[in-house]
Amino acid sequence: MEIAEMLERRRIDICCLQETRWKSNGVCHVNSDKEKYKLFWNGQKTAKNRVRIFVREPLAQEVLDIKRINSRLMWIKPRIEKQTMVIFSAYAPQTGESEEMKMTSGLHSLKQSLIGGDLNGHV
């Protein structure tokens, strides 16, 4: 609820979050004082690397597709003003992680995409 209240105060329609620590995957509604948000999240069994995307209603009703790639990467595809967009929430591996971890994170395939996330210095 604190995040939804901050999003309302700052008039933010879409917000990508990382390192959220929620297990499993899901969708739920979160209400602030005046606004309603839909929360999409992605995680796995361990308590790290999870990503979320908050979307303000009624824009959340325009989400056409959700793709949960892994615990570090997910995207939603909303229709905004007659255009379809893809919005990624990404959490890149830290600098000290192995090359295998960096390559299996899925981020290397997003070279020409718009990403909201904690890229940990990887650009």
Account of the protein in words:
The strands form two sheets. Strands 5, 6, 7, 8 and 9 form a five-stranded mixed beta sheet that branches. Strands 1-4-3-2 form a four-stranded antiparallel beta sheet. Helix 2 (99-104) links the parallel strand 8 (87-91) and strand 9 (115-118). The chain has helices at residues 2-10, 99-104, and strands at 14-18, 26-31, 36-42, 51-56, 63-70, 73-80, 83-84, 87-91, 115-118. The longest helix is centred in the N-terminal third of the chain and has 9 residues, at 2-10. The model has no long low-confidence stretch (mean pLDDT 77). The chain is mainly beta. The protein contains two helices and nine strands; from the N terminus they run H-E-E-E-E-E-E-E-E-H-E. The termini are far apart. The protein has one domain: Deoxyribonuclease I, Chain A. This is Endonuclease/exonuclease/phosphatase domain-containing protein. It comes from Helobdella robusta. InterPro entries: Endo/exonu/phosph_ase_sf, ExoIII-like. GO terms for molecular function: double-stranded DNA 3'-5' DNA exonuclease activity.
Structural class: mainly beta
Main β sheet profile: 5 strands, mixed
- By CATH, the superfamily comes out as Endonuclease/exonuclease/phosphatase
Anisotropy-based shape: globular
- Per the CATH scheme, the topology name is Deoxyribonuclease I, Chain A
Average pLDDT rating: 77
GO biological process, one term: DNA repair
Organism: Helobdella robusta (Californian leech)
GO molecular function: double-stranded DNA 3'-5' DNA exonuclease activity
Protein name: Endonuclease/exonuclease/phosphatase domain-containing protein
